[in-house]
């Protein structure tokens, strides 16, 4: 689907993946975690997008425009 629809599909997929992952624990999930497979898909998708010129804009768009059901705002995380 992403290959056929392009930029908008890439953005939407990233938004969905970021929105359904609970980042509040700050810990990597184990295989029993309910977010484990979403995180694996998010990592895979980010790896696939690294070679595309739109990667940075898609990533920032996904973070800046979360879906309404996003569990934890990524803006709350600060780099120490």
TrEMBL record:
InterPro entries: CNOT1_1st. Residues 2-75 form the CCR4-NOT transcription complex subunit 1 N-terminal domain. This is CCR4-NOT transcription complex subunit 1 N-terminal domain-containing protein. It comes from Bracon brevicornis. Pfam families: CNOT1_1st.
